[in-house]
Amino acid sequence: MDRATTIELPPVVHDNDPKALAAEILSCLTYRVGKDSSVATQYDWLTAAIKVVRDRIIERWIASTKESYEKKQKRVYYLSMEFLIGRLMRDAFSNLGLMENMREALQSLGVDIDMIAGLEPDAALGNGGLGRLAACFMESMASVDLAAHGYGIRYVHGLFRQEIQDGWQVELPETWLDHGNPWEFERRERSFEIGFGGTVESITSKDGRLERHVWKPQEHVLAVAYDTPVVGWQGRRVNTLRLWSAMAVDPILLAAFNAGDHIGALKEANQAASLTRVLYPADSHQAGQELRLRQEYFFSAASLQDILERHLSQYGELHSLPDKAAIHLNDTHPAIAIAELMRLLMDVHGLDFDMSWDITKRTFAYTNHTLLPEALESWPIPVFERLLPRHMQIIYAINAEVLLEARSYQRYSDEQISRISLINEGAERRVRMGNLAFAGSHSVNGVSGLHTELMKETVFSDLHNLYPGRINNKTNGITPRRWLMQCNPGLTSLIREAIGDRFLDDTEALSELNRFADDAAFREKFASVKRENKNRLSNYVAERLSLRVDPSAMFDVQIKRIHEYKRQLLNIIEAVALYDQIRSHPEKDWMPRVKFFAGKAAPSYNTAKLIIKLANDVARVINRDPAVRGLLKIVFVPNYSVSVAEIMVPAADLSEQISTAGLEASGTGNMKFALNGAITIGTLDGANVEISECVGEDNIVIFGLTAEEVERNKRDGYVPRAAIEKSPELAQALSAISSGVFSPDDPGRYRDLINGIYERDWFMVAADFDAYADAQRRVDDIWRNAPDWYAKAIRNTANMAWFSSDRTIREYARDIWEVHTGEVPPKSN
Question: Is 255 contained in some domain?
């Protein structure tokens, strides 16, 4: 796929008429799947349907790759530990304009396209927003006609499958490859040997001068490429997502096997396979930490070898690498690639340190996704040095370069120098991967306006002072193809009916919907679409959880990774307070509400898992209490995934974006909800700030402390107990939870959790509670007036065009990667 061929294939003209497609599906079923239609399973029909469309994609894929090669286009290489791609069938069918014809073709064969679409593997190759962003970016890079490769890991199990047993999260393997993956192509010829451990030898000249270093790894594994085509809107370009799978260099030690050591003979194969077995192994113990570092180096090293081999085959030298390749690090996980590129340039290709460092810095760019210091990866030096001894030497050399540069300005204190260093000299010396990524990149970007400014002031303040032009902002975006056109076809049809089709190609055209916000007939149609989406979610909940919810109630939705800073706990506590108020004041005009939660907690994150249990305990009590009269229900939807989000996002009336201000880098769920006509209740955090500016302050409900006020509280000695004592509703809710009202089987279950709010409240739950509760009552008041509610909801959809990932990618292309997209960008916001 990487080199132009001198043999031209005769053009194939595909007939996309439903009858022709049906005949092609039957032929594929027979000759490529090997089944007669009378015995074909639903999975067989799924495979046949995908392969028929895949044939059309392959032609464009080859053409796109050939064009990039012949025109010597600069390529973007996007390195990410996560690609939360979800199901690809609807994505590809829709982007090629084949969805309705394929639906009709399959229907003529007695096959329901929606039924088989639900069987497609939901590739959980990511943990949350980071991986989903990478997937949106890959689709947008193809849609704006930008030559790009994505690089990641082909996890066998991906993120765990979540079951809820007695209210507790239970992690089970996610077996997404059980029925194969009809989208991928194994590229065994694109295999690279990756080493770990061993020794480093210094090679000197006859006169004793150091010439080069030779790393002799003790362990070796093969990285084997699996390619998935990524189709852009209208099929204008097809790019490549290349995922690496680990294999043993010697799959079986035959001598050991023949000697009777059947287990030992497969030891290397098993060790290699474990490398890409599971996404994010638990890092609460050293073995998990070591495996995660191995994964990060494995895919980064394989990707760089692939990139350099491609570049050398076309240009024959490496000095031009920054002009022809833009390598982007999606967070710190692939930051080891900086040291690896230095090693390849110096040790393999013979460049000196200064030239290698110049090439490296001009080639790499880095996106930071977190302000939490504990989330900026660092590795204990003994572990790092044992696994990657040559890279440790290179990092020390880079660190010397950076610190000598800082010292030369004579304006940095020893404390500032310590913070700039790539080595944390604390009680346990560690390699700071965020500092390595910053030092080794020509561009470092945040993912929302607020996040970028806070980066300059907090985690990277000293490095920003040293390299003042390096940090820039690129606010995140989402692809409107998946997060409007595919997941919400009813709303898409309504918008087309109102303003025409231009928004399908140019999301900016959505602004034309503003004139319909005060149109009673359009509001009624908009509400009808929302009601259909709520019916769909209600049916899903009834089927999965045997729980009935009323679609006429407000659907209040918080779906995201379970984490203390995202404050699902604040939402649950407010639900308990509301429960108390409904029972105490039955005479009031309470608005019926269903609170939905979904999300996974990291296996070793015990507090987050306890919050899931609390949500389920509170749901059990409230949902069974006749005194509530059905006015409040709590639903925890298990095994949150892209496919579950595609059901829940279009059904949401209220979008919960309530993180502690200053801690959420951006968020993309907030964008998906607003695009689908949900009103946001949220803090001024992450991209909520920019959403408020775009949709208007009257069409969003903002509450709580600002990032500056959160920092001031921490600095001035915030006392959460005092805040709790001033709020009777909060005090009563906390007392109920702590005393065992919702956990009669274990009254002390939540005592420590609630004591943590009284004693520390790091995430300002008590500080923001009253403001949050008041904001929820404002939401009730808006909901009472249906025309007003839907007018605001319509304005949310109409004003979300700027949050398209197409806009984000154009900004990356223009400002960071210095590449040209293949189409004229729409006007900026």
Answer: yes
Kind of pairing between the strands at 679-682 and 210-216: unpaired
287: left (phi over 0), alpha (psi -120 to 50) or beta: alpha
User: Which of 670, 613, 604 has its CA nearest to residue 638?
Assistant: 613
Sequence-distant (≥ 6) Cβ neighbours of residue 697 within 8 angstroms: none
- Residue 125 sits at φ, ψ, to 5 deg, of -95, 35
- Identify the active-site residue in 452, 668, 808, 821: 668
- Mapped onto helix, strand or coil, the DSSP state of residue 787 is helix
Per the residue annotation, which of 132, 369, 430, 563 is the catalytic one? 369
561 among known catalytic residues? yes
Examine the fold and report which residue of 325, 346, 374 is the final residue of a domain before the chain moves on: 374
Q: Which residues contact 643 (CB under 8 A, 6 or more apart)?
A: 86, 87, 118, 122
Only one residue has tokens 């000598």, namely 404
For residue 687, give the amino acid letter: A
Q: List Cβ neighbours of 265 (8 Å cut-off, separation of 6 or more).
A: 252, 253, 254, 256, 257
pLDDT tens digits, one per residue of 584-600: 999 999 999 999 999 99
Sequence-distant (≥ 6) Cβ neighbours of residue 305 within 8 angstroms:
192, 344
Q: Domain of 643?
A: 553-801
3-state secondary structure 690-733: HHHHHHCHHHCEECCCCHHHHHHHHHHCCCHHHHHHCCHHHHHH
Q: Is residue 286 one of the residues assigned to a domain?
A: yes
Q: Which SS3 state, helix, strand or coil, does residue 137 take?
A: helix
Amino acid code (one letter) for 302: A
Q: How far apart are CA 706 and CA 62, in angstroms?
A: 50
User: Which of 124, 141, 134, 155 has its CA nearest to residue 243?
Assistant: 155
Hey, what amino acid is at 777?
R
Question: Which of the residues 35, 390, 561, 609 is marked catalytic?
Answer: 561
Annotated catalytic residue, options 60, 161, 391, 560: 560
Report d(CA 796, CA 650) in Å as an integer.
13
pLDDT digits (tens, 9 = 90+) for 251-272: 656 566 566 655 665 566 667 7
Flag whether 53 is in a domain. Answer: no
Looking at the predicted structure, is the pLDDT value of residue 322 above 90?
A: yes
The two tokens of residue 775 are 């904001």
pTM of model > 0.85: yes
Average pLDDT, stretch 513-531?
A: 98
The CA R_g of the chain, rounded to the nearest whole Å, is 27
Report which DSSP code applies to 563: -
- Scored b (16 or more CB within 10 A) or e, 299-317 reads bbbbbbbbbbebbeeeeee
CA 771 – CA 760 distance, rounded (Å)? 19
- Residue 347 is classified by DSSP as I
- DSSP string for residues in 196-222: ES-EEEEEE-TTS-EEEEEEE-SEEEE
C-alpha to C-alpha distance for 522 and 497, rounded to whole angstroms: 10
Last residue of a domain, one of 353, 374, 395: 374
DSSP reduced 3-state for 81: coil
Counting the structural domains of the chain, the total is 2
In a domain, 487, yes or no: no
Kindly tell me if the per-residue pLDDT of 484 is higher than 70. Answer: yes
Residue indicated by tokens 């980071």: 130
Tokens 């659907």 map to which residue? 555
The catalytically annotated residue of 566, 600, 613, 795 is: 566
Q: What are phi and psi of 280, to 5 degrees?
A: 50, 70
- In this predicted model, what pLDDT tens digit does every residue of 607-635 receive, in sequence order? 999 999 999 999 999 999 999 999 999 99
Q: Give the residue-averaged pLDDT of 136-160.
A: 95
Tell me, yes or no, if 534 is annotated catalytic: no
| Pairing assessment for the beta strands 364-367 and 378-380 based on DSSP bridges | unpaired
Summarize the confidence of residues 56-65 as an average pLDDT. 94
Is 668 considered catalytic here? yes
- 72 an active-site residue? no
CATH number at residue 687: 3.40.50.2000
**3-state SS assignment for residue 567:** coil
